């Protein structure tokens, strides 16, 4: 009887299902490698430095669980300074030094993802996650090996606009940074607002850092908006805009997207300038780290944090940025393990196919229930609000799935 490659794969997969033992087609390496670029210096160094410990935790956790089909993993991380060209150089260097042992990569920005995407071809293709929620990356036809660990920025606007509609809002302002990150969901948001019967009365672009706050607040006041969505900021500008509006006496309700939802930033602003962030809300794809009831994966993270980061601020709290990174790494590991357990080679094509097929996944804590990958993204999130008195973001809506 002649056995071709397809029938051989089917036979080995069947044998795996019976024995429960993964059958890897090529010789397994001594270790698998995941590369990463992080902004440990530069404008977003704060985020990068809070994310970096997540890789140490992931390595410990994943290897304690047996790695991938019994093979350990190792992370290779380098500083990018939040410069896409640096991230590309890091990727090429890791690929050259680690070869086929490197089965995945984690990038620090939309720019890095787009710059590296053309490199992901043939033998150089690798599965790739990142900190980005860029809408254009959620297209398997153009970015087959790249994925998002949550909703796109467009989906985040969908969630916020639906929430505004549910609250009885009528007039909406969009204030966003003059970056690709900031502009990403604006056109889509305009169309979605019209569908919901909301009037977009202001679209205001600002500098990503050092914005002219009085000018932008004046335009917001003149617009008559009852709600304002802030997009494309990480640390400085979004709280300054809210503070300026409060000094101006504006009753407008502010909402942010993922990168403006970090507790550490909100707490610092409150300590330095008072409780003016009271009432601020925004969309988060995940539970916050302190919301660990019925979240067994978060409980594991908490135990590891106490052991690995004792005496540091990370001992009791994992930032939203680190949570997003861990979610991205968990998704990749699920795809790696599903591929191995199916008796398939850990090629980029096989891994990408299994990643795209993730359905009704119980993440153990990140989301409010089982989630699925749709167009290499997970379109789920809910609205949280900040309370300066206890320093917590608490849910203000049910979970939305776009």
TrEMBL record:
A Pfam cross-reference name: Peripla_BP_6
GO biological process, one term: amino acid transport
Keyword entries, A-Z: Amino-acid transport, Signal, Transport
Family stated for the protein in its record: Belongs to the leucine-binding protein family.
Residues in Leucine-binding protein domain copies: 34-374
Keyword Transport found: yes
Name of the protein in question: Amino acid/amide ABC transporter substrate-binding protein, HAAT family
Classification via InterPro entries: BCAA_transport, Leu-bd, Peripla_BP_I, TAT_signal
Domain of life: Bacteria
């Amino acid at each position: 009887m002649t056995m071709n490659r397809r029938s051989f794969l089917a036979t080995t997969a069947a044998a795996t299902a019976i024995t429960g033992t993964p059958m890897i087609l090529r010789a397994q390496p001594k270790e698998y490698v995941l590369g990463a670029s992080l902004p440990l210096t530069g404008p977003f160094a704060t985020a990068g430095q809070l994310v970096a410990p997540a890789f140490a935790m992931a390595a410990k956790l994943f290897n304690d669980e047996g790695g991938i089909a019994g093979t350990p993993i190792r992370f290779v991380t380098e500083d990018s300074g939040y410069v896409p060209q640096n991230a590309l150089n890091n990727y090429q260097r890791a690929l050259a030094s680690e070869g086929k042992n490197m089965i995945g990569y984690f990038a620090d920005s939309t720019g890095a993802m787009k710059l590296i995407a053309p490199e992901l071809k043939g033998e150089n293709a690798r599965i790739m996650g990142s900190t980005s929620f860029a809408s254009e990356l959620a297209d398997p036809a153009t970015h087959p090996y790249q994925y998002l660990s949550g909703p796109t920025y467009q989906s985040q606007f969908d969630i916020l606009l639906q929430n505004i509609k549910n609250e009885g809002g009528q007039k909406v302002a969009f204030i966003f940074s003059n970056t690709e990150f900031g502009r990403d969901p604006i056109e889509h948001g305009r169309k979605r607002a019209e569908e919901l019967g909301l009037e977009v009365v202001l679209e205001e672009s600002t500098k990503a850092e050092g914005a002219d706050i009085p000018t932008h607040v004046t335009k917001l006041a003149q617009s008559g908006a009852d709600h304002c969505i802030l997009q494309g900021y990480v640390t400085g500008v979004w709280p300054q805009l809210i503070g300026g509006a409060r000094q101006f006496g504006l009753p407008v309700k502010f909402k942010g997207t993922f990168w403006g939802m970090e507790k550490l930033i909100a707490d610092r602003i409150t300590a330095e300038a008072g409780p003016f962030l009271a009432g601020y809300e925004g969309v988060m794809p995940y539970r916050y780290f302190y919301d660990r009831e019925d979240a067994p994966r978060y409980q594991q993270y908490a135990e590891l944090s106490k052991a690995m980061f004792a005496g540091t601020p990370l001992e009791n709290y994992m930032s939203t940025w680190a949570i997003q990174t861990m979610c991205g790494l968990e998704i990749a590991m699920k795809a790696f393990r599903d591929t191995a357990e199916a008796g398939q080679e850990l090629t980029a094509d096989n891994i990408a196919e299994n990643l795209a097929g993730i359905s009704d996944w119980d993440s153990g804590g990140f989301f409010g229930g089982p989630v699925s990958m749709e167009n290499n993204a997970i379109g789920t999130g809910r609205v949280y609000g900040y309370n300066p008195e206890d320093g917590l973001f608490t849910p203000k809506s049910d979970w939305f799935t776009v």
